[in-house]
């Protein structure tokens, strides 16, 4: 079954950490959510306290504005009735001025600024202000830090009220303040043109804190008089931070705790579980490389499972060493038996050659002696091939070039081919099975002995591997080939069939070439 490999999840320790993270991540997320809720409530409470402090500090000012608005409306009602009751206006204004109010002066004027009913207005120069700025139907408010002057036109009359603005002891959370109108830009000290847009960011009667510029927070509170809004600039840190910053602050502590817990879990898992497994892996590797037996005993933090694996591995390693020793002993005995059989076969072939020589001495005719010599030569060839094959590396696949080289040396030493023949050998690293090597050697012996009988002085042997075939090529400087021995011709057919090869002779000027094409896989 194919092993599934995932990034960072290949080790046991990383998988333990992944499971721990899967379990702890929802807890960290829940803790971050509750922390976010707590911080949000804390910021909201701080903003409410700041708005209450600003509203409390400006209570005298807002009371003055409300009183002035009330008096302006009363004078407007008198002007609307056409001043029907004489002395009513003066009595009302005089009563207001004598009361504990902040109104300093009030009056009713004609459209051209002539006083109809006034109290204390001329001494402040209010009448002259009416001629400069004609009032509109809605209240026109002129507000400074110390004085309020408001006018309104009612049925062809101008109603005016002037009041003193009490000083304000600003709370520590504010730096400055100003008033703005929701209807039209207010004429006052420090008024800004964009205040009309700013106050519309809240509902008509709502109060709150808005962000005007980067790092600039404004508290906006409604004033019931003249539809005004109080705008106070807050110090940094009073208003609630952006939501993303609150999210970061809320998640910081849970994430840090999660990271620390992951680090601690990684250390504990490595100490309590993974170290024993790594130790067992090192013992297995040492046993595989050097056959070192595993150390006895387990670590102080070993689990029951790792202790059981250690015991099973110790038992398995002991059993494997015993079986290997038995296998080595059997292999040694088999090698001894193989060498003994090789020597016995070689000795038997030499005995057969000796017997044939004895028969040759007792032969009565020349034809009989020649026949016995030919059989003896065949036996020597079998012995040479046998020695060349079994002197090579003991393996199922042998090097063809190395075996053929040993065979050619033996043929020249035994005199089966001329020792003065120059044989050029060009072999690639071609590997053949033992049965193929035997057939190839016998086939090559038949070709070399025939070329030697044909008087060749130089022979070139090539053995190359081309794609799925092996090509054997034997060429010699011979003009005419010697006649083929019938037995040799028959044996050539047998060896060629064993190799499943396609063989042929090719004759050129003073050169003959034998070529055999052998399939790469021969069963």
Automatic annotation (TrEMBL):
It is an enzyme of class 2 (transferase). It catalyses: ATP + protein L-histidine = ADP + protein N-phospho-L-histidine. Keywords: ATP-binding, Kinase, Membrane, Nucleotide-binding, Phosphoprotein, Transferase, Transmembrane, Transmembrane helix. The chain crosses the membrane at residues 12-34. The keyword Transcription does not apply. Residues 340-413 form the Signal transduction histidine kinase subgroup 2 dimerisation and phosphoacceptor domain. It comes from the Bacteria. Its EC number is 2.7.13.3. The keyword Nucleotide-binding applies. This is histidine kinase.
